[in-house]
């Protein structure tokens, strides 16, 4: 079995078989994280460069751990401590790193499409760790893995994504992936934070949270990015909390096996209350654990044999 | 299975059953009982043979034998060479192997590279007192200094032949065949 693509740039257009293969492989890798010696020699001799042009703790840590667990050698780079500050272009930065014989590049960038651009100009396989408001495929995969663990299959699940849909790469990747695996997806948020024509991605759109939550199996709560308020997209944070914060009261009629997810970092008391984030429906920390397994799977499958 | 290949059955249902029973007895005899034993099968046929050997031993000795499964894919030495990437399955050793006698079980012993990978993986789980190897078929052609402690059947083969083991649990019946690889 092998993936159709040499890169993991997004989940748009990735077929069911490839997503299943990544999730199955991740499920097998999860066991390694429970071992006394948490390392396997699978990627010995493979070198991975982690290029983080945008701040990240969770994702970067998760990729670095995944690389170590598979015995890959890795080098990491962050924007502030590199030649990018001296004005080097993205292409030059990566060409130089590739000249040092790197097999895989993990990239996070504030510009949508940066990983795609890279994939065209280097020989290494590229993994998108988040590009602007476009895609964050490994986050969506770990969300799907977490749901598959709990429900067995995603077929027919009703997933509601709440918050700033317009600026969310997590939302976009989730919509594509979930639809491919047969879940039904709804998005809910203030009109100003919902992209025009989002229905074309195959989702239901709600402005009122209580309508959206009716019959939901899963609520994926997005982080509110405070800078949106200064852009005039939100009347006030307090208004947002009143309308969209996930609280225990709001979940009074929820299904018994409801799942609450959050990609982190959480603004407690803004998009979700303390009580719900740490409550019985929450799988937020399972998501983090699964993140390492999913990234191991992506690295392993893309490092491929024979190429 | 394409036409033109000659199929040659070398063990049938009963032969496999007898071999499993004999191996189980030999394991008990060699270890003077089954007190400290754990059995670990290698995917994807050795795990079923491991469970059967454990069952026979449990029947005779009236003790509970822990059975584990390992998938050696991530420990293969040809991962970067093979054209088609193998699917990774779970390793399940939900017990401590430290200080225990581990019986490693596989269906066919050939080059010994699978066993090398399995041994490497096993020591990542602890320090067994000893490891013994049981195989249903030993076909020769070793590329590493590895030998089996318990052998169901020695089958001298040429390198151009293929040995296939089928087990009831997956394939519907127990059978070992040798066929000519189409050149």
Describe it for me?
The complex is a heterodimer of chains A (307) and B (183). Chain A has 307 residues and is α/β, with parallel strands linked by helices. Chain A is 37% helix and 15% strand. Chain A has helices spanning 16-30, 58-69, 90-99, 114-121, 137-151, 169-180, 209-213, 227-230, 237-244, 274-277, 284-303; strands spanning 47-52, 73-78, 104-109, 125-131, 158-162, 184-188, 203-206, 218-221, 259-261. A five-stranded parallel sheet of chain A has the order 7-6-5-8-9. Chain A is globular, with a radius of gyration of 19 Å. The two termini of chain A are 14 Å apart. The model of chain A has no long low-confidence stretch (mean pLDDT 92). With 183 residues, chain B is an alpha/beta fold. Chain B has one domain: Rossmann fold, CATH 3.40.50. Chain B has helices spanning 13-30, 46-61, 113-123, 168-171, and strands spanning 7-11, 37-42, 67-70, 101-109, 130-138, 150-154, 161-166, 175-180. Chain B has a five-stranded parallel sheet. Chain B has a three-stranded antiparallel sheet with strand order 1-8-7. In chain B, helix 2 (46-61) links the parallel strand 2 (37-42) and strand 3. In chain B, helix 1 (13-30) packs across helix 2 (46-61). The radius of gyration of chain B is 16 Å and the shape is globular. Chain B starts with 6 loop residues before the first strand and ends with a strand. Classes of the chains: A alpha/beta (307), B alpha/beta (183). Chain A binds chain B through residues 1-2, 21, 24-25, 27-29, 31-32, 35-37, 39-42, 45-46, 70, 300-301, 303-306, and chain B through 71, 73-75, 78-92, 120-121, 124-126.
């Amino acid at each position: 079995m092998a993936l159709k693509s040499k890169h993991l740039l997004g989940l748009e257009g990735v077929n069911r078989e490839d997503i299943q293969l990544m999730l199955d492989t991740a499920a097998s890798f999860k066991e390694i994280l429970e071992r006394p010696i948490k390392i396997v020699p699978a990627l010995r001799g493979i070198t991975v460069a982690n290029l983080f042009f945008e701040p990240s703790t969770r994702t970067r840590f998760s990729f670095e751990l995944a690389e170590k667990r598979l015995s890959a050698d890795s080098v990491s780079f962050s924007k502030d401590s590199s030649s990018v500050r001296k004005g080097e272009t993205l292409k030059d930065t990566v060409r130089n790193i590739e000249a040092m014989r790197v097999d895989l590049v993990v990239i996070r960038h504030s510009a949508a499409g940066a990983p795609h651009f890279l994939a065209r100009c280097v020989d290494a396989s590229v993994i998108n760790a988040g590009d602007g408001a476009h895609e964050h495929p490994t986050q969506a995969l770990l969300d799907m893995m977490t749901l598959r663990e709990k429900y067995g299959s995603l077929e027919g699940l009703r997933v509601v994504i709440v918050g700033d849909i317009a600026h969310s790469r997590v939302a976009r990747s989730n919509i594509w992936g979930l639809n491919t695996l047969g879940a039904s997806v709804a998005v809910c948020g203030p009109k100003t934070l919902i992209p025009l024509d989002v229905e074309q991605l195959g989702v239901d759109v709600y402005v009122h949270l209580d309508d959206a939550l009716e019959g939901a199996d899963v609520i994926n709560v997005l982080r509110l990015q405070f800078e949106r308020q200064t852009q005039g997209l939100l009347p006030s944070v307090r208004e947002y909390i009143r309308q969209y914060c996930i609280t225990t009261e709001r979940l009074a009629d929820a299904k018994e096996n409801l799942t609450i997810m959050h990609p982190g970092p959480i603004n407690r008391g803004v998009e979700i209350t303390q009580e719900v984030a740490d409550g019985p429906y929450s799988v937020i920390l399972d998501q983090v654990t699964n993140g390492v397994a999913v990234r191991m799977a992506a690295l392993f499958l893309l490092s491929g044999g024979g190429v | 299975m394409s036409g033109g290949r000659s199929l040659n059955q070398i063990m049938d249902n009963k032969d496999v059953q007898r071999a499993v029973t004999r191996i189980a007895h030999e394991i008990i005899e060699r270890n003077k009982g089954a007190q400290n034993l754990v059995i670990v099968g290698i995917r994807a046929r050795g795990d079923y043979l491991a469970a059967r050997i454990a069952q026979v031993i449990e029947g005779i000795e009236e003790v509970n034998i822990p059975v584990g499964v390992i998938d050696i894919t991530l420990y293969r030495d040809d991962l970067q060479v093979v054209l088609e990437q193998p699917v990774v399955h779970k390793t399940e050793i939900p017990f401590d192997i430290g200080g225990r006698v581990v019986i490693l079980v596989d269906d066919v012993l050939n080059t010994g590279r699978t066993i090398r990978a399995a041994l490497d993986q096993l020591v990542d789980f602890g320090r067994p007192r000893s490891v013994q190897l049981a195989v249903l078929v030993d076909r020769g052609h070793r590329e590493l200094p590895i030998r089996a402690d318990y052998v169901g059947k020695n089958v001298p083969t040429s390198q151009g032949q293929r040995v296939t083991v089928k087990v009831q649990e997956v394939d519907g019946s127990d059978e070992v065949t040798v066929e000519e690889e189409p050149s």
